[in-house]
Amino acid sequence: MTEYLEQAVIADIRKVYGGFFPGEENSLVSALEQIYVETGSWYDGYTFTRYRHIYNPQSVVEAMRRHRLSGYWTATETYEALKIYMDMDYGGLRTDIARMLGGSRIAVNTGSFRNDMRNFRTKDDVLTLLIHLGYLAYDSEKKEAFIPNREIMGEFENAMSVGGWTEVMRVLRASKKS
After folding, report:
1. pLDDT score of 178 more than 60
2. Among 134, 131, 113, residue whose Cα is nearest residue 122
C-alpha cells in the first residue's frame, strides 16, 4: 500500500511540476512524509499481532483518487447503527466512548461476546461488537479498545450530534478550538 501511495503521489507531483531539479529531492521526501502522516491519522490505527499499522484500503484509495482526505468507508454505512449501540449505555458505555474520543483506551473482555447482535448483557458485549464492525480498534496484548483514526472519530461525533449528547459535543468542540 505504501508503494502504491508513493507512486501515486510522485505521479501527481510530476504532472504538476514536470520533473525535479538537483537538490529538490529533500522537499519531495518531506512532502511524502507529510502525506504519510496525514493519511495515517485518517485511515491507520487498526492493529494485528503481526502488523502494527493496518490502513483502511477503501478509504486510502478513494482519498488518493479524489485528492482529498475524508470519511469514505464510513460513507458506506449509516451512523444510525452506531448510535443505537451507543445509546444502550451499559455499565457507563457513554462515559467510556467520551473518554475514547479524548484519546483514551478502554479495557474490554472480548471473550464474553457470543456473536449475537441483538442480545447484549454487558458493556463488553457492545464494545466487542463495535470492534467486530470496525468502529473500534483492539489491542490484543493490552486487551483495550480505542477509536483508531479521524475517519472513525468523525462517525462517532456524527452519531453523538443527533443522540442527545449535547454536553459531550460542547466539550469536544471547545477542546478542538483550544
Report:
1. no
2. 113
* Ordered DSSP codes for 91-129: GGHHHHHHHHHTT--EE--GGG--S-SS---SHHHHHHH
| CA proximity to 170, closest of 75, 67, 122, 98 | 98
> What's the N-to-C CA distance of the chain in angstroms?
35
Q: Is 164 among the domain residues?
A: yes
In a domain, 71, yes or no: no
Q: How many domains does the chain have?
A: 2
Asked whether residue 94 falls in the same domain as residue 122, the answer is yes
Q: How is residue 91 written as a grid cell?
A: 455499565
Grid coordinates belonging to 76 = 458506506
pLDDT at 106 > cutoff 80: yes
Q: How sure is the predictor about 107, in pLDDT bands with cuts at 50, 70 and 90?
A: very high
**141 is a domain residue:** yes
d(CA 168, CA 86): 13
Residue 128 belongs to what domain range? 77-177
Q: Are residues 166 and 142 in the same domain?
A: yes
Whole-model pTM over 0.85: no
